[in-house]
Amino acid sequence: MEISEWKKDLESERENKDVFFGQHFQSPIPFETRIKFKGLNYFSADPKYRFELVLHEHEKKESINVQDTQENERELLRWGEFRFMIDNEEYVIQAYKSNPAEERLFIPFRDVTSGKETYGAGRYIDLNPEDDYNEGKWTLDFNKAYNPWCAYSNDYSCPFVPPENWLKASIQAGEKNYKREE
Q1: For residue 172, is it within any domain?
Q2: Into how many domains does the chain fold?
Q3: 171 in a domain, yes or no?
Q4: What digits encode the pLDDT tens for the residues 94-143?
Q5: What per-residue confidence (pLDDT) applies to 56?
Q6: Considering the domain boundaries, does residue 67 fall inside one?
Q7: How many whole angstroms separate alpha carbon 110 and alpha carbon 56?
Q8: What is the gyration radius of the CA atoms in the chain, in angstroms?
Q9: For residue 157, is it within any domain?
Q10: Which residues constitute the domain of residue 117?
Q11: Which residue in 28, 33, 40, 131 could disulfide with 181, CB within 3.0 to 4.6 Å?
Q12: What is the pLDDT of residue 133?
């Protein structure tokens, strides 16, 4: 995919999300504050944070328990890892599944921007085979990183990012922090 087409698709996804968050009855933005909602804040699209990668699937799918924002525990399967470079530094990030039959990969992460420019508890990326997998490689695009719904309302419960996915990189891509109207 060409850069211009990729940017156009990304902008369209962002516009559609803003419409959903601002108008849809299932929006995580509380109804009483939705009238003031002007859209989410994003870093500018940057191809530096978009990677075509092989998933290094773990031979043994270990399960880990992760606490969520409502103090419950969730079980995730460590499915595999992606290895990538940013600014000449190599990083490894784990991909998880809720159960072996699930096709989607879940990538929660924190980075240097967490708690400053982005949501303090971290952000998520979901990879779906029909959209993000082609010829043996996954598209890991941090420009699609999003805030969990608990960033918008205390009504939601979201898993915390496992420490193994706390990156020492500054990922200036995807959604920025959302300032709640309380």
Answers
A1: no
A2: 1
A3: no
A4: 999 999 999 999 999 999 999 999 999 999 999 999 999 999 999 999 99
A5: 98
A6: yes
A7: 21
A8: 16
A9: yes
A10: 43-165
A11: 33
A12: 94
